Amino acid sequence: MYYKLYYINLNHKDFNMDKAMYKELIADLMKKESELKNKLQLIWDAVRDHPNDMELGGVIRNMFWDKRDISHDRQLDLFSD
Length: 81
Hints:
By secondary structure, this protein is mainly alpha-helical. It is 62% helix and 0% strand.
């Protein structure tokens, strides 16, 4: 998933944000915040449930690889962003 990076120069003389642009920006940021909160909650739950460092490492690696397997059809990609 690619994330949009929003940089708005409000002092630029040609900048004009209408209400629709503002609503879209806020909606995108709220969605991103929700996704990050969910990921953080999964990590906190894993830390709480797996006090053993090796066990925790395995759980976190599985989270990463499971997500990656869904998003990419390649087996190994050493230089992905």
